[in-house]
Amino acid sequence: MGENAVTKNQLQQHYHHQVVDVPQGGSKCFDDDGRLKRTGNVWTASAHIITAVIGSGVLSLAWAIAQLGWIAGPVMMFLFSFVIYYTSCLLAECYRTGDPVTGKRNYTYMEAVRSNLGGFKEKVCGVVQYLNLFGVAIGYTIAASISMMAIKRSNCFHESGGKNPCHLSSNPYMIMFGVTEIFFSQIPDFDQIWWLSIVAAVMSFTYSTIGLGLGIGKVLVTGQFRGSLTGISIGTVTQTQKIWRSFQALGDIAFAYSYSIILIEIQDTVKSPPSEVKTMKKATLLSVFVTTAFYMMCGCMGYAAFGDNSPGNLLTGFGFYNPYWLLDIANAAIVIHLVGAYQVYCQPLFAFIEKWAAERWPKSQFISKDIPIPIPGFRPFKLNLFRLVWRTLFVILTTIISMLLPFFNDVVGLLGALGFWPLTVYFPVEMYIAHKQIPRWSTRWLCLQTLSLACLIISIAAAAGSIAGVVLDLKVYKPFKTSY
């Protein structure tokens, strides 16, 4: 509260001529909690969600469906989309404690857990959530470098007429991505990256559409609709591999849909009235519908085009065939999208550390002082030295780990599998039960707990599949020496 009061006093001194107090502590410039008016709406919230959801995960869905087949693949995608939508609606209800319009706001996922479930579960949630965000930052660094290399390799392959194998090291590309993220990481707050989210969402549609188009094109050229009802056949892979790969496919689908870890933070950018819950439910429905339609089309057409040989990454696994310039556009769109998605996922982690540091050392000028940097034609940029140093170190660390473990996508799949149940299902269900005071052993309580248990089993299976993938990678592992 003290922090909010100081913020409000400072802002009121700056905007005193615009402030007119209204009931419940709000005003023309400030919300009911003393913070500047939130300006987000259904469209900006949807852009944030789509940016977070349609990540490079969409490109592995053809591979995932190839492991599961024409029946189980689409069915599992529909089930995951329903679970994500339902639990996201439960989570959105927990943004305010008490009354859905005037209750106390929970600014982060962890605050919502603390308000509804208590301190110990908040700590558990924090560890899982921020470890997951850290893992996603590493995964996105690797994914971006693979797409940058795909551009270089497709051009090299085209120029040499297919004679040059064009082996490249991923390290320079990871460093380039890291330098870009150091620059964008200086954007102070989550609500100031809405424009980056919209650009990233447009890019995600661009490369998904190109992937879809290339899949359709290949089906038309070959005249074959490949694939089978049960997926990759035993013989192509062993029975054990089939089981592990099917489990890993579940992890891929779960990871492709995962965004609950930043839902509360997105909801905190939304203006009211109408109530934030109504806006967020609309944004969630719109986003899940759009992403599921795209996922089904990209995953199914990729599988139809390649059958059991569907590549792990649809756009870098095309073999760099013509039109090579179209693949270049698609991979460039992936890189631009991942620049934005990295920020959408990391901003909550940045905010958590900065808030903790401000509370730990309240009198430190290094942590609290903003230095205005004049920008011609724009408002001065407020440079904070602590933010500059800590965020830069964070990006450097994620880049170094990416270079050390370039197969980290399997580890991120593992983090996705481990994070899916607690963050997407368990905590939203438990918070909703506490928030709505649903009686134990009532029909609704039993249904919610059954959903949670089923998702726990899926998460354990997906984690096991990802661990098997990591074990295989470790057999051929050479730090800093991986080339593609």
Report on the structure:
- The protein has 484 residues and is mainly alpha-helical.
- It has two domains: 37 residues, no CATH class; 435 residues, Hydantoin permease, CATH 1.10.4160.
- 68% of the residues lie in helices and 2% in strands.
- It is globular and about 65 Å long.
- The N terminus is likely disordered.
- Belongs to the amino acid/polyamine transporter 2 family. Amino acid/auxin permease (AAAP) (TC 2.A.18.2) subfamily.
- InterPro entries: AA_transpt_TM.
- It is found in: Cell membrane.
- Keywords: Amino-acid transport, Cell membrane, Membrane, Symport, Transmembrane, Transmembrane helix, Transport.
- GO terms for molecular function: symporter activity.
Question: Can you summarize this structure?
Answer:
The protein has 484 residues and is an all-alpha fold. It contains 15 helices and four strands. It starts with a helix and ends in a 10-residue tail after the last helix.
